[in-house]
């Protein structure tokens, strides 16, 4: 079995969150979706589990942070082209997300950042691995 990644995010309004990710082009796996949570398919082995806050709390003893005020994680997703970076950002803003930081263009990597409807931080990027400099930290 291949390794799969399930990113679990606490959400205030499940329907609004599901609609946001569906508008980005990510389908819902109905087999793992109910009134407590929804499974969003990012790729064959990558999933976002949107869990209503009360249900999310059953998996942790820690307090939930408010992702609109605090950073919990920076989630980055790659796409095949620079145009797809721009398209994803346009879809995110149209679906109710926020264009969060100035885009970055390093030549070999192009990146834009948005916040979803709950304030979770997403970076969308295209990287041309054939153009990565010998020391990418010296940009």
Describe the structure.
By secondary structure, the protein is of the alpha/beta class. The chain folds into 2 domains: 1-59, 2,3-Dihydroxybiphenyl 1,2-Dioxygenase, domain 1, CATH 3.10.180.10; 67-139, 2,3-Dihydroxybiphenyl 1,2-Dioxygenase, domain 1. Helices cover 19% and strands 36% of the residues. It has helices spanning 14-23, 53-56, 82-94; strands at residues 5-11, 28-29, 37-43, 46-52, 74-78, 98-105, 109-115, 121-127. The strands form 2 sheets. It has a 4-stranded mixed sheet with strand order 1-4-3-2. It is globular, with a radius of gyration of 16 Å. It starts with a strand and ends in a 12-residue tail after the last strand. 22% of the residues are buried.
Summarize the structure.
This protein has 139 residues and is an alpha/beta fold. It has 3 helices and 8 strands. A hairpin with a 3-residue loop joins strand 6 and strand 7 (109-115).
Give short descriptive properties of this protein.
139 residues; alpha/beta; 2,3-Dihydroxybiphenyl 1,2-Dioxygenase, domain 1; 4-stranded mixed sheet; 19% helix; 36% strand; globular
